[in-house]
Amino acid sequence: MGSLSTSLNIALQSLQAEQGAISTTSNNIANVNTPGYARQRTNFAESTPVQQGDLTLGSGVHLDQVTSLRDSILDLRANQETQQQGQLNAFLGAAQQIQGLFNETTGTGLQASLSAFFNSLSQLSTNPSDPNVRQAVLTAAQNLATGFNQTSANLSTLQRNEDSSVTQSVNQINTLTAQIAAVNIQVASATGSGQNAGPFVDQRQQLINQLSGLVDVSEVDAGNGSLTLSTSNGAPLVVAGQSFQLATQPDPTTGLQEVFSLGSDITAKITSGALAGQLQIRDQEIPGIQSSLDALASNLATDVNTQNQAGFDLNGAPGGDIFVPPPAGGVGAAATLTVSLTDPSKIAASADGTAGDNTNANALLAIQNEAIVNGQTPLNAYSGLIFKIGNNVSTAQTQQLSGGLVLQQIQNLQGGVSGVDINEESANLIRFQNAYQASAQISAIIDSLMQATINMVSGV
Amino acid sequence: MSIRLNPDLLPDLLASIQQTEQNLNISTQQLSTGQAVNQLSDNPGAAAQLVKNHNQASQDDQFLQNINSLQSRFQIADSTLSNVVTALTRAISIGTEGANGTLSPSDRQAIAQEVQGINSQLLNLANTSSQGTFLFSGTAVTTQPFTLDPATNTVTYNGNTNVTSVQISNGNAIATNVPGSQLFQNAAGSAFGALQALNTALLSGNNIGQAVSQVQSALTQVSTQRVTYGNALSQINLSESFLNQDKLNLSSQENSLIGVDPAKAASDLVQSQNANQAVLNATGRVLNLPTLLDFIK
What we know:
The structure holds 2 protein chains of 2 kinds.
Chain A: H1 4-30, E1 40-46, E2 50-52, E3 55-57, E4 61-68, H2 72-100, H3 110-126, H4 131-192, H5 198-212, E5 218-221, E6 227-230, E7 236-239, E8 242-243, E9 246-250, E10 257-261, E11 264-265, H6 274-310, H7 333-336, H8 359-366, H9 378-418, H10 422-458
Antiparallel strand pairs in A: 1-4, 2-3, 5-6, 6-7, 7-8, 9-10, 10-11
Helix pairs in contact in A: 1-10, 2-5, 2-6, 2-9, 3-4, 3-8, 3-9, 4-5, 4-6, 6-8, 6-9
Chain B: H1 10-33, H2 44-98, H3 105-126, E1 129-130, E2 133-134, E3 146-149, E4 154-157, E5 165-169, E6 172-175, H4 180-184, E7 185-186, E8 189-190, H5 191-204, H6 208-258, H7 262-287
Antiparallel strand pairs in B: 1-2, 3-4, 5-6, 7-8
């Protein structure tokens, strides 16, 4: 038979259990706006029943455990999508600045200078001996060179900006991996000692998610609650309580920061996260555009020079260079394109040495219709470059938009599992409050029963 | 049991607000610039085509400028040659008069004098220059094409026989000069040679009729060659109207490439305004919804 004191004990346990539940509810409500917080649930469990003869008597309730509700698969997917978004955001931020350098929708980009240069040659063909017309050719050539120089210089500035972003990202990655390593131990030790590791997991997931925005992270469960993190190419980031720092070191030829892990260069192996986007802009997008501009500037300058050399100037002397000969192979041609000719009379409009002949001016003009850049006319090559620049941005925008929707959806699913709902907590609160009050009432009743028993015994 | 929804509505609401604000921005920008393509990425294909389009339009402008400067040159050449025709016609007329056997040698001498005058007038015309360059010296535009040796009274051509051509539209070039030797010292009838022969004939009284017919054939040559300039003038007029039409086409093409339909843009603007307001309104309401906590006493 259960005694009164057993009943009192049961009521007391119940009070404690409900108190724990109320405390958890209160904690949930307190953390409703905490990023990364997963709502917690108290698990009530029946206490081990007491066997008395044939009777099995319940012995009350106890709080079995407090668990954090989260879905690790959703966490993983959120991290993966965050990596994609990180990369696309970093790429787009810079790529949009790049396309701003090519102001072709307002007609004020390189096309205008390119057309103006050939138009000045067309003008020259109508009046090859006019000094003003000749001067106009030189001015147009200078404007064209300046256009190339500025565009190339602006691209280099953007490239250097991306380079310092790379260093910043690496620093952030290192800070995060150190933090994750510290939390990783706490998760393992809480799990090992059977405590609720939830709050530490919340924190760790929050940090890994931030890390995912920066670099591609691959997670492996190391058992005992600890995670092993590496880049998707296997460069270790966090193993148990140890973080592996990434390092940067300037490349001897380009001067750009390369990313190293444990002494080996992993720059080309980073596949997503902001770092990948920054590297993509710095090492592919900008160099690609630069080399297209270089090819255009270099082939144009070389062909114009060659054609000018083939003719005769206003004084009947053989023509020379109009542009400083571009560097061999064309690398850096756009940045350094310079008009070397200063005397307009030295433009070789004539093919026979007579002042009125325009045959060579026509030949210079004809370069605009010659396939001099990768089998394309200068303008078509440039137009192709414009398409490429715009299309890279537009493709990334589309991916960012759809990836963003996917991420939003995953985050909603995460919220469905882990988000704190005030209504739900309030309902729980009422439930726990009622149960608490009931247990308190039971204590009072047992108290009065005990009083009655004591009075009965003392015979008062 | 229904699936538990994300109790935090804010991210979705914020995303919707952002989306409608973005649409609002796009419509405003399209209306204010009149362009549907404001960045390369808005329509990369159209932007690339626009580069070619702008280049073509700027070439057309240049062709029109070329035409302008050619036009004045051709007009000067044509009117010069018209004066040459008048002068030669006069020479024929007075030469025919001089061939009349009843004239005294002194009368013929007077006529020879006038022929000599026509010869120097012709020399001036043949040395016509425009904007500092000689029109009839081939490509040796800085060399005076014809000089007269007073001792022998012969005219020498110092220019060359080169012809220049200038593009007046894509792939369409025209010759811009006729060398002076072809005009005035053509093998089939040299104006200078004929006038000199006429002068000599008048002074000597022999072969005047033959000399007149030489002037006649020189006149024929000048008239024939003059047609080149006339043709060139009508050709550039044709090109001019073609180029103006092409520019119109290019600008309407540009409009369809990147232009915005104002009516559509305006209705887009109204729509995105409405959507934006609706989302803001909904957000205000949703965020202010009472929770169960409000009912716990």
